[in-house]
Amino acid sequence: MATHRTLLPGTVFPALSLAKVGGGSLDLKPAEGRHLLVVAYRGFFCPLCQGTLQDVQGKLDKLQDAGIDVVAISAEPLDVAEKTAADWGVTFPVGAGLKGKRRPAAGEGAQADLRTLGLYVSDPRHYQPIDWRFGEPGWFLVSPDGKIQYVDVASTPVGGRVNVDHLLFATKWVQQRLVEHPEFAGYVWGGVPAAEGGEA
To answer: Pfam families from the entry (predicted)?
Structure first.
């Protein structure tokens, strides 16, 4: 029986590095004292992904003011991702080249792989002018300590899409809650039980 592994809140986000649109590499880790929102998109052929990234772009200042930096990632080759970012008007960092292996080979360790991130993987269909496997949508909010705070991945194009307004509301609510209840900082929803090495 086929199974799917999903990254859990409270666990450390994989330390991956991807080719970056505009040159250099993109390390998927938060800057000191800041959260990192990682948005996984399907590709240039997906109008829903375009809407998601453009919504994030339009609210980028609000996210940054809330202490949240943003990156987008996909299985698109670098040259394709360059065009996608330009056509969609995306100015925040974009990482390209996630691989669509079915499973990492034994002994390979962490790699820039769709499965490493717990994303669902699809093969291209006849109407998609691509020849690479791609990941279905997902997003992760990584805390300054490198652990996953929120995660939402989907097996369909219509799911796994970050609602920026809801995320900003939740972030502000948590910050206000911390003033009266500092222990709130250690709470993890949907995460690893304490007996398995995570938060209670």
So the answer is: AhpC-TSA
Range of the domain at 164: 17-189
Tokens describing residue 53: 């990234």
17-49 pLDDT, tens digit each: 999 999 999 999 999 999 999 999 999 999 999
Token pair listed for 73: 């990632």
Does 5 reside within a domain? no
Residue with the two structure tokens 């080719």: 19
> Residue 105 is part of a domain; what is its CATH number?
3.40.30.10
Tell whether 1 is covered by a domain: no
Q: What residue type is 137 in one-letter code?
A: P
Distance of alpha carbon 46 from alpha carbon 161, whole angstroms:
13
* Burial tier of 31 (Cβ tally within 10 Å: 0-12, 13-18, 19+): exposed
